[in-house]
DNA sequence: GATCTCTGTGCAAACCTTTGCAGTGAAGTA
DNA sequence: TACTTCACTGCAAAGGTTTGCACAGAGATC
């Protein structure tokens, strides 16, 4: 029932190889023949079988995108950017969700391995050694995790944490909590490290609460702890948790930013919709998606193909993998969930402790994110 | 470099067919041989090439999921439910985003056709006739669109609209606006139809505004129109638009629900987080995902396979497609964005016009969605 | 008129599996 | 003993495509 290259060949009176060339190397076939073949193909509704093509060329023109949780609004912009970038290069993206489950991640890499030309591993939860092992099976680009020897796209959450802590300290907060993210998250570790350093430098105390599930509920569940900890400011692992915390504090009757200031990370679109609007560290999510696809496709063109069509040239060059690591910048966006703390006005007053008036608002639009720098290669 | 069945055969001293059987029909091979082969496979890190397998069996064990917009929080629960249901049956799901673009939808169906065993088309934007045509290329299940002769999973938004309008009319609203969804959306048409009927029955006027992009911004952009239309209540195409409208009205200084009541559709998790919390028509998104996968896989096992392995039995049965259409129930969840209207208390007072006190709150948890009914088959 | 170049096409192998069929030898049956 | 049955394994074709190589014929060159 499905029409193959053979049917087209029969219909147009040429050999199947000519039909094949009509599609994959049109310049090699006589214009007259070409139009005839194309007409027949059109007539019969022929579409090249990509799986069969992949079998011999070693190129599927698909890339896999493994995501911890599609429901986390952090990811969709990344997915969309990756998809549009891939489409430009005539690639398709297959997205798979792991439910924050390390075992599912491994499973999926294996399942995808032979059906895609490479995989983007976003915010993986599995161990470094397992990732390295899997990278021998299929080209990998890792997002939100630093891994020696593998191409990585990172967001400078360390810098973001620093900015956030400095912002809070500048507002007069000295007792700050950090709501940690999920176990196994590189971002969470990085955030904690940088926040610790920044807090020490600013003379503030940092209490770490967690690990927590990186969801609204994870934040909500910590509201009680936050109140008990006696802190006046909180930096959350991500916006979702920050928003949950906002909810939880509201339910407990704790005023934000009156009694407690809250800062998130990611700047998901939702963070503009809460009351109060969320101060947050904007991460360049879309840029990360684009960059990761670029790096994967770059690596892909460098690498020899697996099919019989492997060029001798590629072999001569050897398996020289590009392992560039890109760090993308983050930026603090100040909205309404942060306000003066108990030490407002004392020492390092600066521009921040400008009285009880309205806080600085982020300008509503425009690009906020700088281009990434290559950090290592 | 990649290890194939042949390498395993060589290593374990058997024919490739024995290796093949070790994986796909273990009971046909001697236990001793089996363990030896498995050991060798393990040693060499062999993994069956699913693409090659698909070429001959005609079964990829993948299903495609085409989504209008991953960033719309309506979809992730559907995706996750579909994914988990598929995983149970040893299938993988490839998600693709079309950016609300009909042309991209067609593109993607073609691209996926030979790499999956079937496609779930969610809230498609393309024409019925095109969908029908594509369904000849690959098994299709359509979600959120009724289409004769094709298996469909629908949500009873008509009933939802009716409940919403009755709720509003009961609260004393007589001038109601409907914020329409995107052009080409079956749900939007259905909503409009049912809302019109219900409004007439309740003696209320219905003003339709739209079509609009089904996003937060689409709702926000209509705030001005809503105010100008002089309505006291609005039913929005989905929660995202309702939330945008909440924003817009807030910016215009219009109180919700004091001056205008707002109802959304979908009950995305976000709708519990707005101020005021959103009254909305809950749609059984996860159930839809599960059901759609079930229907697709059902159809899949019925249909003869394309590969040479096609059983004669299937042919004897003939191409009997299951074209069941399932309608899932919706339910109105009343929160804080709806309140008494100008005609509150006059006639049909009921339980709704209980003075200016707090409105009814939805209970926070528990299942709200009934199981689906088969409507036709 | 012989040789060369070039364009267009056909041939057949290869990619990695699965599976119907046939063959082997051992155990069971008459 | 001769026959059947059975469990296991090998053989080879098939699935749809790509591509190196060979070849035919046309035109150009000397």
From TrEMBL, chains A, B:
Q: Name one GO molecular function term.
A: transcription cis-regulatory region binding
Against CDD domains, the record matches this protein to: HTH_LacI (cd01392), PBP1_LacI_sugar_binding-like (cd06267)
Cross-referenced SMART domains: HTH_LACI
Q: Among its keywords, does the record have Transmembrane?
A: no
What are the protein's UniProt keywords? DNA-binding, Transcription, Transcription regulation
- Which residue intervals define the domain HTH lacI-type in the entry? 3-57
Q: Name one Pfam family in it.
A: LacI
List the residue ranges forming a coiled coil, or say none.
Answer: none
For region Disordered, the annotated ranges are 336-377
Which InterPro entries does the UniProt entry name for this protein? HTH_LacI, LacI/GalR-like_sensor, Lambda_DNA-bd_dom_sf, Peripla_BP_I
Q: What is this protein called?
A: LacI family transcriptional regulator
Lineage of the species this protein comes from:
Bacteria, Bacillati, Actinomycetota, Actinomycetes, Micromonosporales
